[in-house]
Each structure stands twice: as C-alpha cells, then as structure tokens.
Amino acid sequence: MPSAPKRPCPERGCPELTNGGRCEKHRQERKSKRWRDDGRTQTEQGYGADWQRVSRLYRKQYPMCGVCHDEPARSVHHRISIDERPDLRLSWSNLLAVCSEECHRRAERQRAHSAIGARHEIGEA
C-alpha cells in the first residue's frame, strides 16, 4: 500500500515536509521552549483539561493570529503570565491567539516591555 504524501510543517515559513505534524526541528523547539523543565506536569503548570477546553473555545472565537493577523491561530498566549496572576489563567481578557512560535515570542516581548514600563511608572524600576 502506498504511503500518504508528505505535508509541510505547520510552522510559518518552514519548508520541511513531514509525515504529519511539525518537522523534527520545530518539534524539539516546542518541546524545549513551551514547557519549563522544572519537573511539573502540564496540569501542574496550569495547562490541564480545563485549559485545553478554554484554548480550543478561544481559538474558535478568535481564529486568526492576534499578533500578525495573517495566519490561523494554533495556540493561545497569556498576556499576563500564569506565574504572575494564576487567577487570570482562564480569563478570556488575558488571552491572545497566536499562529506560531515567532508570534508567541513577539507577544512575550510585548508583555516584557509592558511590564518594564508599568514598573517604571510606579517607581519599581
């Protein structure tokens, strides 16, 4: 039986063809960057079944990337980190749909820039 044709890696701009899912480079990148290596499970980090449900519903409501506005959203970013405000973990006002690691990093940089500005304004910097 012939094998299925290879498909492009879903990461934006990646030319690699795969048997399904991300290419090896992007699989490793997601594995190393997405979850902290502190021994906690995804559920313990705040990404359990309730988060998966909220993330899926949020992407259904906001299907395009909130950063580049060009590509379909593939994940959801917390505007304020879970570590900083665990009470906002499932709050839609704290979420942003993103299409790629690149857009997620852009959102992270914006969060860091906003936090620095806020600390400076209240004299913590």
Termini, distance in Å? 64 Å
Rg: 17 Å
Shape: globular
The spatial strand order of the largest sheet comes to 1-2
What does this 3D model show about the protein?
It is built from three helices and four strands. It is of the alpha+beta class and 125 residues long. The chain has two domains: 1-33, no CATH class; 46-125, no CATH class. The chain has a two-stranded antiparallel ribbon with strand order 1-2. It has a two-stranded antiparallel sheet with strand order 3-4. Mean pLDDT is 82; it is low at 117-125.
Features:
125 residues; alpha+beta; two-stranded antiparallel sheet; 3 helices; 4 strands; globular; disordered C terminus
Detail the topology: elements first, then pairings.
Layout: E1 7-8, E2 17-18, H1 24-34, H2 49-61, E3 75-78, E4 95-98, H3 101-121
Antiparallel strand pairs: 1-2, 3-4
